[in-house]
């Protein structure tokens, strides 16, 4: 994750729900009330680039030091979503939850102990990645796998594949594009070899 | 809820779109200026907030102020990152275009040519160049650097095509007047709509730039 990485910057703009722990006179504008103090206990969705540091930094000094804000898991990583992913990773359109779901989850796991989330997401990615590879090859049109048409994930029937591909988040999209371009380039090369 | 950093985000979204394009969209002069102004405003706020403390600010005694300062600082840092990433994405693209044989005239004239094809119809009536003056300067100097680097090897064209030619000679049609070029077999005058049988190596660059079209 480089400093200049565009996707990393966009991931940092994802918002997570935060609760302010103390009253701050100058920050009312964050709660859409400029000119008014921001009360302790206000719940506001803050972008990661702001929330992360505010949660880590503390008021300093004595042993009663506490963070400026506490945060919860964003809706994209809520229990419901995790349960759905456990049931069938391929059935959840991740993009509707967050276009940078994995990046967001990585940040959240850096900030808090979420053992289970890591396990579920790893399984999600592996399962979806093989599905992505399958679709990528098909679009490339290599057409080697005609024999496996009875498999549930095969696209011959209706728009299920299209729907799945639309639900890919950014990282998965990149993977899809790479796999697709690779299959296509391989095919082109093979055809060129035959010509000579 | 508009807040600090929102405009920077817009810039980065522009950059994201740029990554997937083959041409360079117009430079967001106004947006860049606004983000830079936001940083200056934030800096002014920080300075005036710290003024009464005369350099002896104690964060644990003034927690609310410390938090505000932190928010301002993070917003500035965010804006900076967005600005840098936006410009970096563009210069990366420009370097790529220079390696592909475009020069400053192609790039600054790109807007009109693109508009004619309907590829970039958005910026009608705006400036003709999609580059900022600084970017034009960058391309010029980068082009000079590349030319100097290529000059080390007179028998290899570093920016030449990687594809081995099938035929030494090819038929080409001239799409735009390109003036006179020198070849091993003498000078050829490339006037629009004429056709020639020439050595591929002599005209490769002109094909890439869209002056000539390969036939057959």
UniProtKB/TrEMBL annotation, chain A:
<protein>
    <recommendedName>
        <fullName>DNA replication complex GINS protein PSF3</fullName>
    </recommendedName>
</protein>
<dbReference type="InterPro" id="IPR036224">
    <property type="entry name" value="GINS_bundle-like_dom_sf"/>
</dbReference>
<comment type="similarity">
    <text>Belongs to the GINS3/PSF3 family.</text>
</comment>
<feature type="domain" description="GINS subunit">
    <location>
        <begin position="77"/>
        <end position="190"/>
    </location>
</feature>
<dbReference type="Pfam" id="PF05916">
    <property type="entry name" value="Sld5"/>
</dbReference>
<dbReference type="GO" id="GO:0000811">
    <property type="term" value="C:GINS complex"/>
</dbReference>
<dbReference type="InterPro" id="IPR010492">
    <property type="entry name" value="GINS_Psf3"/>
</dbReference>
<dbReference type="InterPro" id="IPR038437">
    <property type="entry name" value="GINS_Psf3_sf"/>
</dbReference>
<keyword id="KW-0539">Nucleus</keyword>
<comment type="subunit">
    <text>Component of the GINS complex.</text>
</comment>
<dbReference type="Pfam" id="PF22466">
    <property type="entry name" value="PSF3_N"/>
</dbReference>
<dbReference type="GO" id="GO:1902975">
    <property type="term" value="P:mitotic DNA replication initiation"/>
</dbReference>
<feature type="domain" description="DNA replication complex GINS protein PSF3 N-terminal">
    <location>
        <begin position="4"/>
        <end position="56"/>
    </location>
</feature>
<dbReference type="InterPro" id="IPR021151">
    <property type="entry name" value="GINS_A"/>
</dbReference>
<comment type="function">
    <text>The GINS complex plays an essential role in the initiation of DNA replication.</text>
</comment>
<dbReference type="InterPro" id="IPR055221">
    <property type="entry name" value="PSF3_N"/>
</dbReference>
<keyword id="KW-0235">DNA replication</keyword>
Automatic annotation (TrEMBL), chain B:
<dbReference type="InterPro" id="IPR056783">
    <property type="entry name" value="PSF1_C"/>
</dbReference>
<dbReference type="InterPro" id="IPR021151">
    <property type="entry name" value="GINS_A"/>
</dbReference>
<dbReference type="InterPro" id="IPR005339">
    <property type="entry name" value="GINS_Psf1"/>
</dbReference>
<comment type="subunit">
    <text>Component of the GINS complex.</text>
</comment>
<keyword id="KW-0235">DNA replication</keyword>
<dbReference type="Pfam" id="PF24997">
    <property type="entry name" value="PSF1_C"/>
</dbReference>
<feature type="domain" description="GINS subunit">
    <location>
        <begin position="49"/>
        <end position="151"/>
    </location>
</feature>
<protein>
    <recommendedName>
        <fullName>DNA replication complex GINS protein PSF1</fullName>
    </recommendedName>
</protein>
<feature type="domain" description="DNA replication complex GINS protein PSF1 C-terminal">
    <location>
        <begin position="167"/>
        <end position="215"/>
    </location>
</feature>
<dbReference type="InterPro" id="IPR036224">
    <property type="entry name" value="GINS_bundle-like_dom_sf"/>
</dbReference>
<dbReference type="Pfam" id="PF05916">
    <property type="entry name" value="Sld5"/>
</dbReference>
<feature type="compositionally biased region" description="Low complexity">
    <location>
        <begin position="113"/>
        <end position="128"/>
    </location>
</feature>
<comment type="function">
    <text>The GINS complex plays an essential role in the initiation of DNA replication.</text>
</comment>
<keyword id="KW-0539">Nucleus</keyword>
<comment type="similarity">
    <text>Belongs to the GINS1/PSF1 family.</text>
</comment>
<feature type="region of interest" description="Disordered">
    <location>
        <begin position="113"/>
        <end position="134"/>
    </location>
</feature>
<dbReference type="GO" id="GO:0000811">
    <property type="term" value="C:GINS complex"/>
</dbReference>
<comment type="function">
    <text>Required for correct functioning of the GINS complex, a complex that plays an essential role in the initiation of DNA replication, and progression of DNA replication forks. GINS complex seems to bind preferentially to single-stranded DNA.</text>
</comment>
<dbReference type="GO" id="GO:1902983">
    <property type="term" value="P:DNA strand elongation involved in mitotic DNA replication"/>
</dbReference>
């Amino acid at each position: 994750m480089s400093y200049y990485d565009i996707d990393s910057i966009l991931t940092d703009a994802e918002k997570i729900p935060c609760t302010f722990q103390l009253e701050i006179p100058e920050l009312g504008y964050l709660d859409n009330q400029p000119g008014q103090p921001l009360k302790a206990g206000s719940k506001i969705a803050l972008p990661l680039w702001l929330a992360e540091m505010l949660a880590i930094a503390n008021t300093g000094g004595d042993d009663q030091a506490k963070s400026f804000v506490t945060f919860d898991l964003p809706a994209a990583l809520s229990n419901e979503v995790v349960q759905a992913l456990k049931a069938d990773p391929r059935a959840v359109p991740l993009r509707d939850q967050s276009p940078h779901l994995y990046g967001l989850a990585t940040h959240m796991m850096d900030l808090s102990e979420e053992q289970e989330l890591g396990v579920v997401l790893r399984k999600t990615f592996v399962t979806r990645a093989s599905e992505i590879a399958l679709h990528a090859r098909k679009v490339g049109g290599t057409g080697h796998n005609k024999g496996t048409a009875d498999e549930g994930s095969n696209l011959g029937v209706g728009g299920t594949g299209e729907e799945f591909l639309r639900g890919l988040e950014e990282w998965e999209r990149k993977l899809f594009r790479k796999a697709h371009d690779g299959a296509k380039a391989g095919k082109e090369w093979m055809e060129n070899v035959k010509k000579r | 809820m508009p807040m600090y950093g929102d405009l920077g985000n817009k810039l980065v979204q522009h950059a994201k779109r740029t990554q997937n394009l083959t041409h360079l969209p117009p430079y967001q002069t106004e947006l860049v200026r606004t983000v830079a102004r936001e940083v200056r405003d934030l800096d002014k706020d920080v300075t005036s907030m710290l003024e009464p403390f005369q350099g002896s600010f104690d964060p644990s005694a003034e927690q609310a102020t410390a938090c505000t300062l932190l928010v301002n600082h993070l917003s500035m840092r965010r804006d900076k990152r967005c600005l840098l990433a936006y410009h970096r994405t563009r210069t990366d693209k420009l370097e790529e275009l220079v390696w592909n044989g475009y020069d400053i005239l192609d790039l600054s004239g790109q807007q009109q040519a693109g508009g004619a094809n309907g590829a970039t119809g958005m910026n009608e009536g705006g400036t003709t160049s999609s580059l900022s003056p600084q970017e034009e300067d960058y391309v010029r100097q980068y082009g000079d650097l590349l030319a100097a680097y290529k000059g080390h090897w007179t028998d290899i064209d570093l920016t030449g095509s990687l594809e081995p030619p099938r035929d030494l000679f090819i038929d080409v049609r001239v799409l735009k007047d390109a003036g006179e070029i020198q070849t091993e077999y003498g000078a050829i005058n490339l006037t629009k709509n004429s056709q020639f049988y020439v050595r591929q190596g002599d005209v490769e660059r002109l094909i890439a730039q869209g002056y000539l079209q390969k036939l057959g």
